[in-house]
Amino acid sequence: MRRSKTAMMLAAGALLALATPALADWDQTLADARGQTVYWNAWGGDQRTNDFIAWVGAQTQDRFGVSVQQVKLADTAEAVTRILSEKAAGRNTEGSVDLIWINGPNFLAMKDQDLLADPFLSDLPNAQYLDLSPDAPAMVDFTIPTEGRESPWRLARFVFIHDSERAPTPPRDMAGFVAWAAAHPGRMTHPDPSNFMGATFLKQALVEMAPDPQALMQPVTDQAFARQTAPLWDWYDALRPNLWRQGQAFPENESIQQQLLNDGQLDIAMSFDPASAAAAIEQGLLPETARVFVPDAGSIGNVSFVAIPFNAAHPEGAKVVANFLLDPQTQAHMQDITVLGSFSVLDPDRLDQDVFADLPTAPALPTLQDLGPTLPEPHASWMTRLTQEWAARYTR
């Protein structure tokens, strides 16, 4: 794809600001990567995502001779623990993880424990299509600067899904769930907060209810946690008795919760993918009446990243895969609702043509305007503390 001279100069300047090996070395990276198998450790709980990763592997094999083997995780922490164990055992090369889908607390843990490879984002030719300014979403993970040690690949927004026939007027803010659940006992719940979806439900409420939301942007302290979460726990104590199964049991993940919605046991579910409802309807996994809604004030959003561990056995192949994920045609394929439906991470001002213009739509697919404002993720340390406190309060 050709770009204007000015745009190319701007992109080149941004890339040089991150400077690790020059883009002139990319041909050597491609040569070294040929024949490698990249072990991509990624959450395996969504079949559409698994299918997309399989498609990526087929494409990189055909184009670059790089195959992809997805290592499906129930929790990203599994891979982080494995990498840490390898480091403790002195396995500084030939590690078992080449690429990892990572966010937030897991990125912070890997960064703090020196488990990440050197910065590589500037090595990728397709990084020219990203906004690489220091505060841009592509350069910040749960308020933590990525320093080029992660590469973005998809946007995520927290959304609710409701059956518009059974529940035509869902709550418009998190506080409203208390009254709604009291009027419709047992018709909503959330995934267990040990799962990121359940944790995000709590974070969404925290962001709305914290007396000082700016405090959530800083590392958590005991004093700040006690003050900022006090309204949250009061709210949750009022909500819990009217949850599905009286708040004594919770779906393991969003897929199980979606099945409960489809089976008519629930009227509200949740997702980190605004297109998931439309895609599930097409697949017969949700009723035609399923629709997406978000709180009026907006919802939490973030960028999904991939990172390369310090001891990856195939770092060249991992870079090839990360670069392919940023190709505009790949991003358009990913945004296709019949494929994955995830919004692109690319900066549209850096594209000469709109590769997203002719993508299919559907009644249950929200527009960016429908989704409203994107609320920032709290600092990663808040999520860890929040889930620990929930478990201490509400599990036995």
Q: Name the beta content range.
A: 5-15%
H-E order: HHEHEHEHEEEEHHHHEHEEHHHEH
Nearest-integer average pLDDT: 91
Could you tell me the radius of gyration in angstroms? 21 Å
The unreliable regions are 1-21
Q: What gap, in angstroms, lies between the N and C termini?
A: 57 Å
Number of helical elements: 14
Shape: globular
What is the helical fraction, as a range of percent?
25-40%
| Classification by helices and strands | alpha/beta
Q: What is the number of E strands?
A: 11
Q: Let me know the largest β-sheet.
A: 6 strands, mixed
Please identify the oligomeric state: single chain
Mind sketching the topology for me?
Blueprint: H1 5-18, H2 26-33, E1 37-43, H3 47-64, E2 67-73, H4 77-88, E3 99-102, H5 104-112, E4 140-141, E5 144-145, E6 150-157, E7 159-163, H6 176-183, H7 196-209, H8 222-239, H9 254-262, E8 268-271, H10 276-282, E9 290-293, E10 299-307, H11 315-325, H12 328-335, H13 368-371, E11 374-375, H14 380-394
Parallel strand pairs: 1-2, 1-3, 10-11
Antiparallel strand pairs: 3-10, 4-5, 6-10, 7-8, 7-9
Please characterize this protein's 3D structure:
- This protein has about 400 residues and is an alpha/beta fold.
- Helices cover about 40% and strands about 15% of the residues.
- It is built from 14 helices and eleven strands.
- The strands form three sheets. Strands 1, 2, 3, 6, 10 and 11 form a six-stranded mixed sheet that branches. A three-stranded antiparallel sheet has the order 8-7-9. The chain has a two-stranded antiparallel sheet with strand order 4-5.
- The radius of gyration is 21 Å and the shape is globular.
